[in-house]
Amino acid sequence: MAASVLLVDDERFARTVYSDYLRAGGFDVEVAEDAEGALRLLRQRRFGVLVTDVIMPGADGLQLLSEAKQLDPDMEVVVITALDRVDPAVRAMKSGASDYLVKPVTPEALQIAVQRALSTRALLAENKALRSHVSLFETCQRITATLDREQLIPLALSAVAGECGAAAAVLLERGPDGWSVSGSHALDQAQAQGLLSAAGGTLERLAPGAPVPLPRLDGVAPSLPASGGVCLPVADDQELRGAVCVFLEDSLDAERADRAALVCRHIGLALQTLGRLKQVEHLAYLDDLTHLYNTRFLHMVLDREIAGGRPFTVLFLDLDHFKLVNDQHGHLLGSKLLVETGRVLRSCVRDDDVLVRYGGDEFVAVLVGIDSGGGLKVAERVRRSVEEHRFLSREGVTVRVTASIGLASCPEHTQAKAEVLDLADRAMYRGKRTTRNVVYIASKDLPPVPASR
């Protein structure tokens, strides 16, 4: 029997397209045009997954999510949002949505998201059916619902240690640079690091669903009555994310091993959710055209750097005569030129530096740990790269533009966030009023930028 999906969207075209995508994937689909109609259907029957637009007239997708969860706590919810409406998607994830999709939605992305939600629901249903102890299920639910990492890790380790009858436990996570300690239960940091060292090659043999015995651990924590242990894999439905290593006084029987493995699977899902939430929050700081950072992120970075006490330099860049590009080639090609400008700027700065689309054809670069002398070299490299680049060649035209750049450094010119931006802006405007295609360094005697520029 095909899995049932309830699709909710106030736009008729979207309902038609998305329902066709889902039916093509083999799902049984019911549609509703608003939250009220969706709730009527939810009261009549159960659905495996609810797919809803976030922004709708009347009761929006967040309200629908809340009421749907009250009717069916096991309901998995996938929300659909526009790139410029990411904040509601973040709130939806915090309220219990299992996934999000950013418009435009492809058939493959929608089908995969629904299948993943169904897999999660099936996993939870299987766990609930197979385990007789409600307290275990509730613990797993608390773990998957915890979106604060500092709360999640102690809760998770305490649960695993309790299910195993273990004297202590350590959560190890696998990252790009190898394995590291993320938290411990009944061990101090030095002991946890010692366990990581003792685990050594055991971690390399670890695979999802397959616990691996640890070597004798007498020297790691002599005060604990434990001579050995087990390394339990922590995985979501896609990959191995880490391991919980436990100190055992006795051998781990099959029943306790199954219960501990269940908790570890939920830890994996919780870590997966935290990763997705971080991605959603990251989207909230991106410019939707260039995918550089936006001004919201710029202010966060400036606050961080000023608080950290490191020197940094701000470059304020404005494209010269950009209006002529729009007038001669149209706004569509003008937008493509702005995207291409972002790529040129990326090639001129380091990975640690921050690039921001400030608005229109204005860009800001924050050069971390660089004073005005080093910033001047970077600014000149940017100016020359823009001047020499042939824009829009892929569109069959060749457009040349130049840029005027203003430079201000902290703490050399000021230690105030607003003032360092203002001074860089003033310096840029000085260049616009003179020769253009030039770099100017800030000074206190530069006139303010006209409000009507």
Properties at a glance:
15 helices; 453 residues; Alpha-Beta Plaits; 15 strands; alpha/beta; five-stranded parallel sheet; 3 domains; Beta-Lactamase; Rossmann fold
| Number of H- or I-type helical stretches | 15
The CATH homologous superfamily of the largest domain = GAF domain
Q: Which ranges are low-confidence, i.e. pLDDT below 50, for 5 or more consecutive residues?
A: none
Reported by name, the CATH topology of the largest domain is Beta-Lactamase
Shape: globular
Q: On the 0-100 scale, what is the average pLDDT?
A: 89
What is the second-level CATH architecture of the largest domain?
A: 2-Layer Sandwich
Q: Which oligomerization state do the chains in this entry correspond to? A: single chain
Largest sheet descriptor: 5 strands, parallel
Descriptive notes:
The chain is of the alpha/beta class. It has three domains: 4-128, Rossmann fold (3-Layer(aba) Sandwich); 131-279, GAF domain (Beta-Lactamase); 295-441, Alpha-Beta Plaits. It has helices at residues 12-24, 35-44, 61-71, 86-94, 107-130, 134-145, 149-164, 189-199, 201-204, 254-283, 295-308, 322-329, 331-346, 372-388, 417-433; strands at residues 4-8, 28-32, 49-53, 76-81, 99-102, 168-175, 178-185, 212-214, 228-235, 240-248, 312-319, 354-359, 362-368, 403-410, 439-441. The chain is globular. The chain starts with a strand and ends in a 12-residue tail after the last strand.
